[in-house]
């Protein structure tokens, strides 16, 4: 067996995780619990919205043609025929030369086709002076102008925002069909790791990855399930990865993902199932494993938290998108100008941490094992595999953390 990793491109790795991602089933949830969930089916309006033509201002319902040429200097005169009561039909239709007062949200009386804002009118006895002409349909929301009954109001795969929840409410969707949240097992490996509650002794470090990975998992709409810190012991690893694979929809294991003698994650994944990829042309993050055990994706992440996080963003996010059926990319980016040259090796996709201030992206340099770069950077700039670097002044897209 080779001592070196057989690296594949980032796009090949993404294709592989997309292939092994199995979409979770659907479940109904009450509307108020659907925020940030992924819609499993298209939702259609159960009624016409609005179900009646209504005014969007306080004013006088008229026939638009009767207002032609009206101005402050030459107002037109209308016969006042009463008021519309909120939620009720007008008593009489609007005939030529007549008007009826209608409040915002009131039903437009029959015969009228526009509303003149009250600000543009003046009452003189039983007459109303209109000082501004209105066009057909002005200040009016027409019957089913928003959505017709049966129209799709939200499409499957959408991550539901507060705005979507409001539209679903209008569409009468009280139980929302969403995708079940994938359960993702989280395992940290390494003899040097101690729980966060312990003060590390020399040679020991706190387990950062369980928290960073679980938080990312949660942000992606999945449920993290902790399986603890496991020593670099083949049997212990096999038993915990096997247990996690039996209980979860995917498993993320950090540390021990390279090819050193102590690195047993790939060996164990091979014993439990199959290793599909071991090594990706990405920096940081090269020692990454993509495998599976009985249809459950098993991902081996590099030990350094920063490297693990880059792999989560660049690769694992696509696995989760496949498992949840999410169709929209939730990566947020900002445009900036590069403040320094960035060197990069050809053939490898580099992710450079940058701090963005006043539109300038300055690389936050440091070894991949440093944690301070994670809090001091705003995000990362992706340098494509075919590039040898980016020059100062280049416009770049910063992927926000
Ligand atoms: P490894 O991939 O196991 O060789 O680990 C690479 C580096 O990442 C080592 O310095 C580890 O101590 C560190 N590391 C591994 N796992 C974690 C973790 N869960 N939290 C913080 N650092 C880790
Ligand atoms: Mg290790």
Question: What's the β-strand tally?
Answer: 28
CATH superfamily of the largest domain: MoaB/Mog-like domain
Class of the largest domain, according to the CATH hierarchy?
Alpha Beta
> What is the multimeric organization of the chains shown?
single chain
* Average residue pLDDT: 96
Rg (CA only): 31 Å
Structural class: alpha/beta
The CATH architecture of the largest domain can be named as: 3-Layer(aba) Sandwich
Give the DSSP E fraction (strand runs of 2 or more residues): 25-35%
Mind describing the biggest β-sheet? 6 strands, mixed
Strand line-up in the sheet with most strands: 7-4-6-5-9-8
Note the overall shape: elongated
- Give the number of domains: 4
Structure in words:
About 20% of the residues lie in helices and about 30% in strands. It is an alpha/beta fold. It folds into four domains: about 10-25 and about 180-325, MoaB/Mog-like domain (Molybdenum Cofactor Biosythetic Enzyme, Chain A, 3-Layer(aba) Sandwich); about 35-50 and about 145-180, Molybdopterin biosynthesis moea protein, domain 2, CATH 3.90.105.10; about 55-140, Molybdopterin biosynthesis moea protein, domain 3 (Molybdopterin biosynthesis moeA protein, domain 3); about 335-400, Beta-clip, CATH 2.40.340. Helix 1 crosses helix 6 and helix 3 packs parallel to helix 6 (about 305-325). The longest helix is centred in the C-terminal third of the chain and has 20 residues, at about 305-325. It is elongated. The mean pLDDT is about 95.
């Amino acid at each position: 067996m080779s001592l070196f990793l057989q690296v594949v491109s980032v796009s090949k790795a993404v294709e592989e995780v997309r292939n092994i991602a199995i979409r979770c089933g659907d479940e109904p949830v009450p509307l108020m619990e659907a925020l940030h969930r992924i819609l499993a089916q298209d939702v259609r309006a159960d009624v016409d919205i609005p179900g009646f033509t209504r005014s969007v201002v306080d004013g006088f319902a008229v026939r638009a043609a009767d207002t032609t040429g009206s101005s402050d200097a030459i107002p037109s005169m209308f016969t006042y025929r009463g008021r519309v009561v909120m939620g009720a039909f007008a008593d009489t239709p609007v005939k030529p030369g007549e008007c009826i007062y209608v409040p915002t949200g009131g039903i437009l009386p029959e015969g009228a086709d526009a509303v003149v804002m009250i600000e543009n009118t003046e009452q003189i006895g039983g007459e109303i002076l209109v000082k501004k002409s209105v066009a057909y349909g002005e200040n009016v929301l027409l019957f089913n102008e928003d959505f017709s009954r049966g129209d799709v109001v939200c499409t499957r795969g959408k991550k539901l925002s507060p705005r979507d929840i409001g539209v679903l409410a209008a569409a009468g969707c009280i139980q929302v069909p969403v995708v079940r949240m994938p359960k993702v097992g989280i395992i940290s490996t390494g003899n040097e790791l101690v729980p966060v509650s312990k003060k590390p002794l020399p040679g020991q470090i706190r387990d950062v990855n369980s928290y960073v990975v679980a938080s990312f998992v949660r942000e992606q709409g999945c449920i993290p399930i902790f399986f603890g810190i496991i020593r670099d012991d083949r049997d212990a690893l096999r038993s915990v990865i096997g247990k996690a694979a039996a209980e979860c929809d995917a498993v993320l294991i950090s540390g021990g993902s390279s090819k050193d003698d102590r690195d047993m994650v790939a060996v164990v994944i091979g014993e439990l199932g199959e290793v599909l990829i071991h090594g990706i042309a990405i920096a940081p993050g090269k020692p990454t494993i993509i495998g599976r055990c009985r249809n459950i994706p098993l991902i081996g992440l590099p030990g350094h938290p920063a490297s693990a996080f880059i792999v989560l963003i660049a690769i694992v996010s696509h696995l989760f998108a496949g498992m949840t059926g999410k169709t929209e990319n939730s990566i947020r980016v900002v445009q900036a100008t590069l403040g320094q040259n960035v060197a990069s090796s050809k053939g490898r996709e580099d992710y450079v941490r940058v701090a963005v201030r006043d539109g300038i992206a300055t690389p936050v340099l440091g070894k991949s094992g440093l944690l301070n770069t994670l809090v001091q950077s705003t995000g990362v700039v992706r340098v494509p595999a075919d590039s040898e670097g980016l020059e100062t002044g280049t416009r770049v897209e910063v992927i926000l953390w």
